[in-house]
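Technical note accompanying the year-one report. For the benefit of new consortium partners, we illustrate the data format agreed upon in the data management plan: each record pairs a sequence with a structure-token string. No post-processing was applied to the example shown here.
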Amino acid sequence: MAELKSLKTKNKTFVFESFGNQEADNPAKIIFSRFPFLHELYFKTGDVALDFDDKEKMTKSIMENFSNQGIDHQRFFAECVERIEDLSYNGMKIKTPAEFFEFIPTEAAYAIALEAYTYAKESDTFTLEEKKS
């Protein structure tokens, strides 16, 4: 009988590296409720020109969106992040995905969110071993 073995699984508590967070005495953490499935890519669709009569324009728009890492970080956080711990900005404690995008400066929020997204999309590692009965 073959037995599936887990070699490496992601931790649902993610300590991001951006802005020296890992060196803090009490680093901020993103707590995932779940990780995205393989088919969940969270690309922004609102910025894509869906002009089916102008296929060149549509293709260019999709490629620009993709190359600009056109990820819908807010939807990704809303669907996959349970909470944020030990993070504050200007004295405001940030605890929810909504607060994260409301109060953290846009550039910082997207840098952290991209790091979290990259981590979340990493694959777990498994192997099959022959189990002797």
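Partners are asked to follow this layout when depositing records. The first helix runs from residue 55 to 67.
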